[in-house]
Amino acid sequence: MPPVIDRSECTLCGACVEDCPGYILSMSEDGPKVLYPDECWHCGNCRISCPVDCVSYRFPLTMLV
Amino acid sequence: MTMDNRLLDQTMECDVIVLGSGAAGCGAAIAAREKGAKVILIDKGKLESSGCLGGGHDHFMAILHSGDPSDSTEAVVDFYKNPMTGLTPQVIEAAWVEMMPIALDILQEVGVQFVKNKDGSWMRTVGFGQPGNWWINIENGRHVKRLLAKKVRAMGVDVVDHIMITKLLKHNNTVAGCVGFNVLDGSFHVFKAKKIICALGNMATRGWTNSTGNPYNVWFSPYNTGSQFVLPYQAGAKILNMDIGQGATLIPKGFGAPGMNGINSMGAYELNALGERFMGKYDPMWENGLRINQILGTYQELVEGKGPPFYMDMTHLDKDDVHHLQYVLMPGDKETYLDYCEQRHVDFAKRPLEVEISELAFGGLLHTRDNMETSLEGLYNGCLFFAFSGSMCGGYYAGLKAAEAALQMLAQPAIDEAEVQQEEERVLRPLKLGEGLRYTEVEGAIRQVMNYYMGYRRNHQGMQTALDRLNLIERYVDRISASNCHELMKANESAELLQIAKLTVRACMERKESGRGFFKRTDYPEMNADLAKPLIAWQENGEPKFSWSH
Fold it and tell me: What is the pTM of this model?
């Protein structure tokens, strides 16, 4: 479910967590985690805010059928 | 009862409070600050990404006085002065058209880039049945909100992010402040002001779903559950058109995204499952006609078994135009558009785009005087007009008017401290409840009622049943518990959603006709010429009251 964060690239800056208008992300020691994937608007704000471009999206099957 | 020191510490005051930091709120805050007012801008989200604009936007409606009759103040006023809109010609001209050049200057100043033709002029397109090319295309639409936010912060607006406002406070029937809680830490906050501007957005979501069943996969912001109407309504303000204000559009199949105006205006053909281009039956301007006709028409085709599927066919268009549409304009409207296209193998140039009728969205309009003040003294409306342009321009004008009035006031109205403490207890109660219902259960039940009884075809018995079921759900709202601040926010959103759903159902029952909204009443299938007027709703002693505007 969107968004998907590439942990190998993530710098743990937290910008994606801060800019998510739905508060679906949370920062952990391992990096940002998607706590509420069902509440994502797919607005792209987390990716726009990411300085190292490590956010991608995988849409659920319900959006692809 | 008086407020304790903890609450006093969390109290802020100013000349003008702006509620909502989307396009309208930014316009309002900029204008009020330019006038010299001390301004607090409050939003549940963060300024850089809040509101519908937070998800991007690809065009800005403005006339440029080029000399063409359709590119004039008169043309816009004529188009929108329909008595159903509740807008006077004077307010359309003063608060929208005359603010357009100011808004364009601000947008260019902050770095918004408009798409240019080869001759250097701005690319402008037609849409929504309007008589002229009023839509200036935006090149970097996904960054508009961040660019505006930088200016708002730099000019000294006191930006308060992460606060969900839950109640407007009054003193002798004048708005005096508001209260709310921080959605990250659960702290409760009090705000006092001489004037308040409501700029929380005219379209609210999560009452209905599209084919995906996901209430967050929608074209408007799914984080707006109707504060623009619920807060003023509960404070005694009058609201227009909660019945016909509901909105809908066509969306790419399975993807809650705006952008259909760009597709329609580029010259796309809408096709039904039989491959027929049918919109000429429903609007003389075909796909470029009124959006209401496109939805009513598409739904009629569906009822007649001529779809789904439905398509927007762009394969006949100029290849460069279609490429620009898919790869520049659409991602400007929603940043993840190309991810959707890639994962669903969408290519505008090669295959027709499958579309569906979107979920409905709640909508209406605060009853507003030409000076932008609502029927509640001290409360101004920042959301009077349509789309990004209408929001920013109307917000800006509301900011001017509210600031002018605030700066003439010597004293701030007092607030009722006992009311503040009661509201704190009510709002934070889900955190203290322990075992209870999850917000998802209550919100899902509201949506089930709205999807089932309040869809694109309705009747009195169905709406009465919907109201009965919503009243049943209301008995459960106090049982929603929250184990963290995210769930606390959702619990309060669910309660708000229930209120806007109830008011919407009641308003829809009042209008005994069809043809002015995106839905039809099967018991009153024809338009009634005597009802060509806005429906006004307000609350008295906890009960909704209605009258027809003249």
Answer: 0.95
